Amino acid sequence: MKNRVHPPFEYILFDLDETLYPRASGLMGAISERILLYMVHKVGIPADDAPEVKRSYHQHHGTTLRGLMDEYHIDPLDYLTFVHDLNPRDFFGASPPLDEMLHDIPLRKVIFTNADRSHSERVLGALQIRPHFEQIIDIATMKYINKPDPLAYQQALTLLNVPGECCIMVDDLARNLIPAKDAGMTTILVEGTGPSLAIDYVVPTVFHVGPLLKKLLLKHRP
Length: 222
Ligand SMILES: [Mg+2]
Hints:
The chain contains nine helices and six strands. With 222 residues, the chain is α/β, with parallel strands linked by helices. It folds into two domains: 11-22 and 93-219, HAD superfamily/HAD-like (Rossmann fold, 3-Layer(aba) Sandwich), CATH 3.40.50; 27-83, DNA polymerase, domain 1 (Orthogonal Bundle). Helix 6 (117-127) links the parallel strand 2 and strand 3 (133-137). The radius of gyration is 18 Å and the shape is globular. Magnesium ion binds at residues 15, 17-19, 171-173.
């Protein structure tokens, strides 16, 4: 078999929540509680049914937001403002090791998230890593088409104006990486759960991404 020449990597796309900060911080848990509050108090779903409806939306629509938009035609801005009405600084602080690791990664860095821009800015601000990211591709940028819908990845690639092969994607959900791999990206699962057979690399924490990339970039040096 002939060795194919791999195009040089140009971008690294990071998911935000529970990828750049650990699940154990509890921020997503608090967001989940606010999602349930929204479903019960704003949409009128019975409290006893809400957790199951949320699980089902997550499974079948990718996010609770998408499920609520499809089934109840809710206003996404109202939802996103309500569920993210939390201060990430109550959950974690600055991360100098993450700052240093991002500084050493010689690729253009982008946030690719199902959350909204304000929440992303607050999380990046709390971690004190905002300057590393040249853009935030948030749920509004994706016109509310969320990961893992393959269209979300196509929109991101169109925006970045590169083929998938030039991108590395980092996410804590295996299901969000499968369409990325289908689009040609190299995939890294962080602190991941779920099936990872289709994933290129699995690392225990985001801090392992830097050392892995050093090896990977050496291998694919143009
Ligand atoms: Mg995540």
